[in-house]
Each structure stands twice: as C-alpha cells, then as structure tokens.
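Usage

Read records sequentially. Each one opens with the input sequence:
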Amino acid sequence: MNNKTDNIFEQIGEHGLIPVIKIDDAADALPLAHSLCAGGQPVAEITCRTACAAEAIGAIREGLPNMILGAGTVLTVEQAEAAVDAGARFIVSPGFNPRVVDWCVGHDIPAAPGCATPSDIEAALEAGLDTVKFFPAEASGGIPMIKALSGPYTGMKFIPTGGINAFNLVDYLKNGCVLACGGSFMVKDEYIKTGAFDKITELTRSALMTMYGFDLAHIGVNLPDTDAARKAAVLAETMFGFARKEGSLGIMCDGQLEFMCGPYFGDYGHIAVATNFIERAMAYFERMGFKFREDGILYNDEGKINAAYLEGDFFGCAIHLLRKK
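and closes with the structure output:
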C-alpha cells in the first residue's frame, strides 16, 4: 500500500471510531462537523445516500480542512469521483465493487470496501488492499465472525459497521484486527434535523469516554528512599489490609497505593489513570496539545506500552496512563 493510504488509515486507527452521517440538508454539514470536533472526534464518514452528500463534504472540507473526512455508501465510480472532488479523503462501500475499488486504487484514494466473506476478503487482497469494512457487522456474525476471518487473513484490518453502539464498541475494538468502528449512534437524525448539535457533542464525548474507559488506577507517593517506602507500605497494610508487593521503583499496596523508593516524577507523587487503549489515548491527548515524557514511556514484557507519563505536573503530581489488563 502507498504512504498516502497508510497514513489515512493509520490516523483513523488512532481515533478508533468513525461517526457515520446521513445529511439531508447541506446547510447542516458544517455545524454538525463542528459538533463532532467539539466532542473530540474530528472524523466523519458522509454517506452518499442523499443528493447533497458531495455538497456537504465540500462544505466541511472548506470549513474544517484538517478534518479526516470520507464518503460512505459509495456504489458507483461517479459517486466516488464526486466525493473525492468535493474533498473526501477516503472511500467506504457497503460491498466489494471491483469498478469502485479499481478507480480508488488507480487514483491513490484509500478505500475500504464492504467484505463479510472469505471470497470478499480475497478479492480485496487481490486488489492490494489491507483494510476492509466489515458490514453489516452484527448481522454478519459480529465479533466471532471477525475473529474467524482474521485467522487465515492475518494481515487484514477490519472496520466493523452496522449494529455498533456504545455497549459493544469496546468489545469490537479489543480485537487486534479491528482498526476502528463505524457507527451512527452519536449522530442521531433527530438532533441533526432539529439543530441540537450540542446533543451530538455530548454523545460524541460520551462515546469517546466509553471507548477509552478512563479509571483511576492508583495513587503514587514519592518518598526519600526504600526504607521510608517500606515503612509507609507496612502502615498501609496494617491499617487497611493492603498487601505489599515490591517492584523495581516502588512498593505497591493492593494496586491502590504505590510508595516510591526515592524521588520520581511529580513533586509529591503521581496519579495513574488506566485506559482500555493506551496508544489511542496517547494520540487523543496529543491532539489536545499535551505531550508525553520520552523517559516516561514504560513497556511490558510483550514490548507494548504499559505506562506513559505526561509532561509536567498537575496539582503537584505527575499523571500517567496505564494499560488496562
């Protein structure tokens, strides 16, 4: 695959969620896009199920040129061409249409055709694709089917769409072969038609928080040395029954309190916040302008990021993300 294609799908994978939108009035396009961005998700797939789809794409591209904007439900080469001319950066189809795929590949446009069977996937591989839409996801067997398909097609990435909601989103994304999920549950038609864009912002942010699953994991306290850390850990065990476990940097007490064996990040200590998807969460914070310490990225035995410290102190403490087990 070419760098342009890889880059778009890499960005989509960092976001994890693609809001799928049907717009009946192009005048609603830009306010809707702003509501998604305000909710923390500058990604959208505008479906070509309405006559104003290309106009809506053009309005968003002009108003928010940095938004990751694509066209969905693309059934013909003419629709693909019109969407790309309007500013779409990727094309999504409900099924595998050889003419649409060939046009996208020939014009260097990232494409994710709908694939729900081994034959579909082999056609996508033959076309040189490594990312497909799995549609309709729930009706086609859901997570078990994706797992079955990923067995023989180990390099293929899937974008499940159809039946995705806030309740099953995380379960889908926990599969390593799932690049991102497409869903319309945060962009309800009634909110678009009534101009309740603030509601869409709320639903979008709620969906992101569900995906990241942020939870307070533990509090770390900086102490002068190992002896001081052990005394504190013994006290916590005596008072609350928090079992001690010594580590290389500190002593953890029942996973709730960590007493550091010497000065460490943060004036007073640190706050660990666990997340379902640490790499996506890091990208999310970086988009907000936060940075991570190069010396504060810790890896697990599998070579994956286990913890990542943000630069700077927050209310006297460092903050680090922690991969959920």
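Summary fields computed downstream for this record:
- The chain has two domains: 3-212, 215-323.
- Residues 197-212 form the longest helix (16 residues).
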